Amino acid sequence: MSHKTTTNRQRLLNALNCQPNDRPPIWLMRQAGRCLPEYRALKEKFTFRQLIAAPELATEVTLQPVRRFDFDAAILFSDILVVSEALGVPFQFNDIGGLQMKTLKDSGDIARLDPAWVVDRLQYVAEALRLIKQKLGDATGLLGFAGSPWTLANFMLDGGSGVAYVRALELFHSDRKAFDQLSEKLARATADYLKMQIGCGVDAVQIFDSLGGLLASDEFEAASGRWVRDIVTELGGRAPVIFFSKGARNWPAQVLTGANVIGIDHEIDISEVRRQLPETVGMQGNLDPFLLSKGTPAEVQQAARGLLEKMRGRNGHIFNLGHGVPPDAKMENMETLVATVRRFS
User: Fold this and answer.
1) Is residue 305 helix, strand or coil?
2) Cα 92 from chain centre
3) N or C, which terminus of the chain has less Cβ within 10 Å?
4) 3-state DSSP: the chain helix, strand, coil percent, rounded to 5?
5) Is residue 3 part of a domain?
6) What CATH number should be reported for the domain holding residue 170?
7) For the whole model, what pTM was predicted?
């Protein structure tokens, strides 16, 4: 009897659907880019904007970490702010001040946002995804992504790097009608964008709620959760959804979004979250990214093993970090991490 080997992609699909696996699949948030020497070589020639906007370049950057580490999944190289830009709120990165963004000034600006054009304006992403999918074939999983309405609202109201994000929360409390109008438009634009990605062949999509931790537990549902649920409902099971709300601790509200997998940051013990989430919902993340830059290979191995043991026997476990790969992550630490997860059974 022939024994069929599980492909990386199949392992990811098993986990996304809470099916048994030979080992947890591994991919890392921000695995493409900053820490890789081959990415830095490209950055000498092209800006970040050029890399995400040219399909061939975005494809190359997406595939670099898969070639080097043989991750179970690739994730599209892009930015959550392409959706706000497609809505008419452009952004740029410069070397001095980081992220620069035009911001929404008042309810008139919110009223003028039109989600109808988002998919047309993001066809360069569709083209990149089709190229990536073609190159990955059936061997490696492919993830698409978008920012959550709550997180995008914060960027669109307050702008870029080094700012205190306060205006979205102020709007939420002082003018719920305007806040809901903005969130509803962002949810519609995001759902359309993710449907486009699914149409291009991604195996799952992740919704990044990077600023979810700004909300108190009793604000989370109305300010973030319900809008993510609208997106998940609109996707209608076309592909599994991973929801990662950094710093948020309201697990029942996160489960209510309808996401198949909940991402967990590194500032909480995963055993505690495991006890609170139903077995039908997958779990992703939790390893401290700091270890990849400041730890030794032995420390990385020990921490990864500890996390794997805590999750032993839990279907739907996807190995990941509690946040993105740091720019100064050491290659030997990345290699050790992948090898440790591979050897686990």
Assistant:
1) helix
2) 20
3) N
4) 50, 10, 35
5) no
6) 3.20.20.210
7) 0.97
